[in-house]
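pasting for ref
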Amino acid sequence: MLNRVIVGVICSVGLLLVFLFQRWDIAGLLGLEAPISKFIFNRTIRFLLNDAFTIGLIYVLFQERKYIIFSLYVQLVGVVVFLVPYFALKLYYPTYNGPLISFLHRLILNPTLLMLLIPSFYYQRKMSGE
């Protein structure tokens, strides 16, 4: 039980820190110079950290392998369906800031998809009587 609390606190604090330090240029600290490389690197790191901490919260709340595996699949789909097109739009249309890019930006930089899994997993458990 104590391990679950510790992991839960670490993941919650991690999500908070990713949010608070979202403007940090990690790519610049690592020596990347090109603006598009910095953009892609920083957004990818933020995406992966947010999702990793959210998967940690899912583990703490449900402690079932099937939920973790499903969450990892959702993260993979997020990379393919949202992250890659987001980068393509930003690469080929850098000045475009319309509703499509805004929608993708929110899905990528916030752990929205995986956070939506928490109530769905809870509902599934409740309906199955676990």
